[in-house]
Design goal:
By secondary structure, this protein is α+β, with helices and mostly antiparallel strands. The chain has helices spanning 23-29, 64-70; strands at 2-6, 12-16, 48-51, 80-82, 95-99. A hairpin with a 5-residue loop joins strand 1 (2-6) and strand 2. The longest helix is centred in the N-terminal third of the chain and has 7 residues, at 23-29.
Length: 102
């Protein structure tokens, strides 16, 4: 599966996802600027991304823990998600995300 990620400078990167891995892990492993300080435990908001319309609606609803973490993030929008909470799967092939500002 493929992830199309836009970094903070507006550069678009196509990276390969792995089934069952989080989008955060794929962004981090590709060298994109995702701090992921908690390692994917949904205990920080340093992997905050914006999910492009059309893809956002395909994701499961935010958990209470994710909502709580996003409450502490900067520049939260209606399409904000924590990339550690998005699991790579075939139905998300081509998902488009933009890394949120720090």
């Amino acid at each position: 599966m493929k992830i199309v990620a836009t970094d903070r400078k507006g550069q678009v990167h196509e990276i390969e996802g792995r089934d069952g891995w989080s989008v955060m892990e794929m962004l981090r492993d590709a060298g994109l600027p995702v701090a992921a300080e908690c390692g994917g435990a949904c205990a920080c908001a340093t992997c905050h991304v914006y999910v492009t319309d059309g893809w956002y609606e395909k994701l499961p609803a935010r958990s209470d823990a994710e909502v709580d973490m996003l409450d502490m993030a900067l520049a939260v929008e209606d399409n904000s998600r924590l990339s550690c909470q998005i699991t790579c799967a075939e139905d998300l092939d081509g998902i488009k995300v933009t890394i949120a500002p720090e």
